[in-house]
Design goal:
131 residues, mainly alpha
């Protein structure tokens, strides 16, 4: 067997095709090398509080900044509060539209069932008269 001078250094670096390879066991599950990957947020840009809480939060921060004499920071917080107020208004408007759409669909379904019931009642009356 030939012993080359650089034999131990031969496989030091991965090839470019193996760089993004993730370790998995035989049934396809990831190995527990990176435990933090399970706890990462899916949408880091989104805040998971609702808009009403955020409006209250930024109004309180604006009030506090104004009491400390920082008018610019206070205005910044008020702009954030205004942004979430607009989001809350659009969410409520969307809910109203969805409710109206659901009510109109239910009304149409009720009208159709009423028509079917009256049509079946008329057929029964016609059969009784024919007998």
């Amino acid at each position: 067997m030939n012993n080359f001078k650089n034999n131990q250094r031969r496989n030091r670096f991965r090839s470019s095709s193996d760089r993004n390879f993730k370790k998995r066991n035989n049934n396809g599950h990831k190995l527990n090398g990176d435990l933090n990957s399970e706890f990462k947020r899916k949408n880091p840009g989104r805040n998971n509080q609702n808009a009403a809480k955020l409006i209250e939060k930024y109004n309180d921060l604006a009030r506090e900044a104004l009491s400390n004499g920082d008018k610019i920071l206070s205005e910044n917080y008020l702009q954030h509060s205004d942004h979430f107020a607009r989001i809350l208004n659009s969410q409520e408007a969307a809910k109203i539209v969805n409710l109206e759409a659901n009510n109109s669909i239910e009304n149409k379904i009720n009208q159709k069932t009423d028509e079917v019931i009256t049509a079946n009642g008329n057929k029964e009356n016609n059969l009784e008269v024919a007998d």
